[in-house]
Description:
With 376 residues, the protein is mostly beta strands. Helix content is 9%, strand content 20%. The chain has helices at residues 140-151, 177-190, 230-238, and strands at 13-14, 25-29, 34-38, 45-51, 62-69, 76-79, 85-92, 100-103, 106-110, 124-128, 131-134, 308-314, 323-324, 335-338, 355-357, 366-367, 371-372. The strands form 5 sheets. The chain has a 4-stranded mixed sheet, with no helix packed on it. A hairpin with a 4-residue loop joins strand 2 (25-29) and strand 3 (34-38). Helix 1 (140-151) crosses helix 2 (177-190). The two termini are 26 Å apart.
Amino acid sequence: xxxxxxxxxxxxxxxxxxxxxxxxxxxxxxxxxxxxxxxxxxxxxxxxxxxxxxxxxxxxxxxxxxxxxxxxxxxxxxxxxxxxxxxxxxxxxxxxxxxxxxxxxxxxxxxxxxxxxxxxxxxxxxxxxxxxxxxxxxxxxxxxxxxxxxxxxxxxxxxxxxxxxxxxxxxxxxxxxxxxxxxxxxxxxxxxxxxxxxxxxxxxxxxxxxxxxxxxxxxxxxxxxxxxxxxxxxxxxxxxxxxxxxxxxxxxxxxxxxxxxxxxxxxxxxxxxxxxxxxxxxxxxxxxxxxxxxxxxxxxxxxxxxxxxxxxxxxxxxxxxxxxxxxxxxxxxxxxxxxxxxxxxxxxxxxxxxxxxxxxxxxxxxxxxxxxxxxx
Length: 376
């Protein structure tokens, strides 16, 4: 079991995503900061988060987390770095599906006031319910396995070459938003799950063919694979950190992500040009194998760079109002994509950066990853 030695725990609160199972119980914590928590379901996923220091706005300034699988005795044993404060324990009774990470429920500040990006303001507080997210961008291999099943079971895609990829372990790309949504439905059906997307408000006709501007009330938000909302994507990309340019901090280098280096940006440590990992085999596209770089605090790879990622939402301007599980504008137009890509400079790889395109657009720098609700 992984532990971190600590000096003192000064504050503790409980956050539970499964109250019917009972709240976690703190059974002990020691002078060196070792926390033992019980009353958790064996095999479930539990996370402990901690604040950055004893001073400053520690209620929101979270610095790190430890995510563990609960043992057969229903107990976790975790410690935090010296002088840090514990935020609490978030947990779900369902183990994370293979290849996915658990993103705990909670509020975060969406947007950024750095770098004169008018699309990323105003900053606003958003509460996001817990969910699972693919640790990696959908690979060519995964795309192909679902695509082949789907085309044998009533699905059609906009282009026969949707889901291209440089290699099986590289991200799939060149799919429209429509095809990404249909693929999520097919992935659900292939695994025996109830799909999320429909072509009517009664949720009677599963979305399998054509280009349908699926409306928010045509989605079963509690079942099946789907694209992340823009808020879910940004919360996940931040990895529990607050106010940083990138998932790991305020600077970026090509040892951390696959993007086009341009050191004229003060926060780009370079080197200049295409990433040497991505450019192996040519620069069209210069994608890199998924998981080539370190994961963020939630265990997600390539949340900056490699390929941009389709989100659910139509593109819209931000509001200053606090929101809970926002799902974007009701009107249809450009669909959001996030994260930057192999041919884009660091500015576009910032966690708060936003972009969008027509849902029938497709590019060799654009892919996606999917999410699941915690009940799945």
